[in-house]
Fold this sequence. Notes:
Helix content: 55-70%
Low-confidence stretches: none
Number of strands: 0
Order of helices and strands: HHH
Radius of gyration: 28 Å
Mean pLDDT: 81
Shape: elongated
Oligomer: single chain
Number of helices: 3
Amino acid sequence: MEPITLCGLVIVAFGLWVEFEPKVRVVGRVICKSRIYKEVFSQSPVHVPTQVGKMPICFAKAHS
């Protein structure tokens, strides 16, 4: 692309950002506060391993 075209593209992109920035921020804030977003991106609970008692001897011999 020619430099003048790139400069025009940058100017137009900046103008659109200035025009629509408040609306984009409002939409982003609504999405981040939504229940679905929190459920999808929330940390899953840490799974604590359970204590295992003694393994039956017959089970241990079958898988060794």
